[in-house]
Design a protein that fits this description.
mainly beta; 1 helix; four-stranded antiparallel β-sheet; 14 strands; six-stranded antiparallel β-sheet; globular
Length: about 200
Amino acid sequence: KKLVVSLRLHRFRTAALALTLGAFGAMSASAQVALSFTSTGANSYLDSYGRMIGWEFTVDQTLEVQQLGWFDLGGNGLAVSHQVGIWDTADQSLVTSVTIGAGTGATLTNGFRYVTVGSPAFLLPGLTYRIAGFDPGTGGDAHVWDVFHSGFTGYEVSGFVADANFNLTAGDALGEFAGSFGYPAGPIGDERAVLMGPNIAF
């Protein structure tokens, strides 16, 4: 019963507070981000397979999503555009999504390029979410992860921190094969909680 009420509240808040925001608006001074790190390692990962890349999470309090971001290795522009979304895992419904264009047009903040969501979207405690975006593999943008993964030295970032409002679990990183943007399969079930990939400004 609690889950049904939460889902209804989720949809009500999103629909009732809808408004249009600038697609490439700069991040507000008060915005926080879900994931941060101090530096990347010596390596990054990109192969020939399309994947939905991201992470699964819960939150401790109601949060409004302001922008979604995508990791830009080196900060010199994205090779391709990336559609990024957040899904409620209970019914696999899409909570919000954006498309982050190729190149340097989207705002770059601490290693991620961000685009403002088109209408208000809220993350609610008690629900489980997946954030992921599509990368085509060959010709796409390399990703990194949060912790050392056996057999892959130097692909993890240093100084990884998740904001205190976000709960992550080792093994809940998302990176299964995919042919297009859609609800992400997984999780992949190894040591990693996060593939970056996507980020959230709230």
